[in-house]
Amino acid sequence: MPALLLGSISTIADTSELQRAAFNDAFAAHGLDWRWEQDEYRALLASNGGADRVASYARDRGETVDAAAVHATKSELFQQALGRGGLTARPGVLDAVRATKEAGDPVALVTTTSPENVVALVAGVDGLELADFDLVVDSSVVAESKPDPAPYRHALRTLGVDAADAVAVEDNVGGVASATAAGVRVLAFPNTNTAGHDFGDAPVVEHLDPAALQA
């Protein structure tokens, strides 16, 4: 088995609609008359970085907001939602993690979200523990955000794994670009709000079959 590099928390459990709800609640908390409906949010997810997305949206509307503060509120609300638990791992994810570990190969989470989001997500998913990951790369580890390849290069270097001996699983276009730029083969595993995005040459899967990791 190749090393398994899961590229975001929504490759583990589909949290995309929880994220959208948290953004909308954060906008209300900051007195903004914004509301991201699903179609608009899907389009916004073509770029990475929540705070950057808020700042860009404000610029497009000719408004000035404290994007970092809005995003911090969103993150707090999102973590509260994760903390309520009841999250289900996406199809095949737990099997893929187990198969990789049983083969003696590493499993990593390579994301640029906050460590708090990672902890809350894993705690909320039945059948998964932080100990299942040999490495977690988050925003406290690598400063550069995807689509920069830095998160994947850091993971490969830390794990001592060649790019040719790893496979990444990503749910968004920026993540696919990040893994590809690092020379890692990547499977696109879109979530509710990135389904239909253009993932280029990356194969798109709806179920994370361990056999597909070896293809």
Automatic annotation (TrEMBL):
Signal sequence, renumbered to the chain: none
Source species, domain of life: Bacteria
Gene3D superfamilies: HAD superfamily/HAD-like, Putative phosphatase, domain 2
Gene Ontology MF terms: hydrolase activity
Cited SUPFAM superfamilies: HAD-like
Family annotation (Pfam families): Hydrolase
UniProt cross-references to InterPro entries, sorted A to Z: CbbY-like (IPR044999), HAD-like_sf (IPR036412), HAD-SF_hydro_IA (IPR006439), HAD_sf (IPR023214), PGP-like_dom2 (IPR023198)
Stored NCBIfam families: HAD-SF-IA-v3
Protein name (record): Haloacid dehalogenase superfamily, subfamily IA, variant 3 with third motif having DD or ED
Species per Swiss-Prot/TrEMBL record: Klenkia taihuensis
